User: Fold this.
Amino acid sequence: MSNSKDRETVISIRGLNKSFGSLTVLKGVDVDVFKGENLAVLGKSGGGKSVLIKIISGLLKPDSGIVNVLGSQVDKISNRELQELRQKIGFSFQSSALYDSMTVRENLAFPLSRNKRELSKAEINKAIEEVLNDVGLPQTINQMPSELSGGQRKRIGIARTLIMKPEIMLYDEPTAGLDPITCIEINNLILQVQQEYNTSSIIITHDLTCAKNTSNRVAVLMEGQFLTTGTFEEVFSSKDERIKTFYDYNFIQEHETI
Assistant:
């Protein structure tokens, strides 16, 4: 994993607040993501992790605070500028978000034909073949999503995001619901994407093994704020009882499910 050399900031968040009715989810969140790094955001279910990346990608508006992505303040730009920014942000959904009625080829062609209309059919086909090779699934090109395993669907979902050559990747629970062997494959793919596509990523997860194996830094989101940020070892050597409890709970849970 390559550490950011020049520490150029690609995402900068200051004083971010977000509530839904009387439920306050994010309370003054501050965090930076540096160019070329993977930042794993850990926290309990319902703790605001997914809300955070939806705000970063402009799918939700913050109540207050500053969210700066690739030099643009996300909630202050026009719809056209937001659409242009979103083309630089890859969003890997927990569900893979593939169109069930389309083949793998058609799923991968869809974002290109919609956003890069200048491309010829031959150029689109070349891009599809390249990205399928990158995720290790060239043989699935004519298959339907229903014919794929959960791990394969996850890979194709990532491929559909990569085909747009994003600068930032947002992974929402990339290993959720996958068996331990497939989890290792997805973790390796996240590292491969970081190296080959030079992406900067936020990995939303409660899977400590995923966080440890894919991230340069870890941030723990609890009670609406980041308790601490650092390497996996720095974070989990903390004396903070809330972090120790989170660590023990996750590894006990993981042990019980194997």
